[in-house]
Specification:
Distance between the termini: 22 Å
Structural class: alpha/beta
Radius of gyration: 21 Å
Number of strands: 17
Helix content: 25-40%
Number of helices: 14
Shape: globular
Length: about 425
């Protein structure tokens, strides 16, 4: 069955990120007024929204999106709306800790929605426990790591980057840049996830159809004993060897955020291409890899993109490096929080993709998105609470490739997931 798509432009008329934090005086009131997107809104402090993200080392953009919600609506400790926690970096070995942290958010009698971005293993169980005792609490997750049929059982809404469409559009973009080889870097844990494993299978078939050699390379899992530092060191050491082996007309893709910065750093020095990150953003890997100070541009993604682009071009990377114009992780954290607020207040429906897109659009002015509800591979049944989304690919020094306008051939939606 063909995946239905909705193409939309998320436009915002006012400047983004002109926000003022709630002060102590406001905290004493039942409501607080905050400057948001150029207009004054009222953030009701008589209900709370919880959000769990990874730490800066694992998923910085997700965390910054949660911080943006706090800037808009205030922290619970200050009388505001948002309660933010971070789950452990080593979430695989501390799964029960992660579950307990998420479930504990529901102990707050004012809690009306809980968001987890990314939805690491254990999120579905945490939501199940929450729903048992608090069925009225909305449970949203961004980029769930658990299989679709697992997370759909307990989440009110799950949002993924469109792993199916992007399985084709990323190799397609590599082809446009002249890539002859496509290297996919990952590890067994990620390849056991249906979302990531299926995308890998689609990428391999797309490369074959597009006339690109597909290569799979294994790298250490940052949640393993080697940790983030060990996994990054491995990438630093291996990329020069991979470029020498496969050639500079090779596009590289990795499934883990922690691998992205060292990959970009070495590609900038030794050659090769990078279309976009697993969870794309101009902040994903580029500042560290290219030594870019974005302090003055913090929170302003058009300015961030412009500065990142200029530095990459100045370093000879024009036409070789890509991203999304706005951070996926940031937009999903902040967008799901905004969506939850609107649902609670009765201005949006949790079953409306259009309302979700509008909430995401608060953070991505003038950006084109494409998306559709997940369709189960075995049954052909379209999910009502899991949606796949993606944005146009932006090639630094070149511009948008308009990947959202590509008609992905039907055959790719029929490729099966195999572990």
């Amino acid at each position: 069955m063909k995946k239905a798509k909705v193409l939309f432009a998320a436009c915002a008329c006012a400047a983004l990120f002109a926000f003022s934090a709630c002060n102590g005086k406001n905290a004493a009131e039942k409501t607080e007024k905050t400057e948001t997107a150029g207009k004054t809104t009222t953030g009701a402090s008589d209900f709370h929204i919880g959000i769990a993200t990874g730490t800066v080392s694992q998923s910085e953009d997700d965390l910054r999106g949660a911080e943006e919600l706090i800037r808009r609506y205030g922290a619970v400790k200050d009388g505001g709306m948002i309660q933010h926690i971070t789950y452990p970096d080593d979430f695989m070995s501390q799964q029960e800790t992660t579950i307990s942290q998420i479930v504990a958010l529901a102990d707050d009698p004012k809690m009306k929605a809980i968001i987890v971005n990314q939805g690491v293993p254990g999120t579905a169980e945490a939501f199940r426990r929450i729903k048992e005792s608090h069925p009225d609490i909305l449970c949203f997750t961004g980029e769930p790591h658990e299989d679709p049929l697992v997370i759909q059982k307990s989440a009110d809404l799950a949002v993924n980057s469109d792993f199916m469409s992007r399985g084709y559009t990323i190799p397609w973009a590599a082809k446009q840049l002249g890539a002859k080889t496509f290297v996919h870097i990952s590890f067994p844990r990620h390849m056991s996830y249906e979302t990531l494993g299926l995308r890998r299978n689609i990428m391999e078939q797309a490369c074959a159809d597009l006339g690109i050699k597909f290569v799979f390379e294994t790298a250490p899992d940052p949640t393993s004993d080697v940790g983030v530092a060990g996994a990054q060191q491995f990438i630093l050491e291996k990329v020069p060897q991979w470029v020498e082996k496969y050639g500079k007309d090779t596009a590289f893709f990795c499934t883990n955020d922690a691998h992205t910065e060292p990959l970009l750093k070495q590609l900038a020095q030794y050659g090769g291409m990078f279309i976009e990150a697993d969870l794309p953003s101009p902040l994903m890997g580029y500042p560290g890899a290219f030594g870019i100070d974005l302090t003055a541009e913090a929170g302003d993604f058009p300015k961030i993109l412009k500065k990142v682009e200029q530095v990459v071009v100045d370093n000879g990377g024009a036409g070789h490096f890509g991203t999304w114009a706005f951070s996926y992780g940031f937009s999903v954290s902040a967008g799901l929080g905004e969506f939850a607020k609107r649902v609670i207040e009765g201005t949006a429906s949790k079953d409306s993709s259009a309302d979700l897109f509008k909430a995401l659009g608060e953070f991505t002015p003038n950006a084109n998105w494409n998306g559709g509800y997940y369709v189960d591979q075995s049954t052909g049944v379209r999910a009502k609470n899991q949606i796949l989304i993606y944005m146009d690919t932006y090639i630094l020094g070149q511009g948008f490739l308009k990947t959202t306008e590509i008609e992905v051939p039907e055959k790719y939606f029929k490729i099966k997931f195999t572990k």
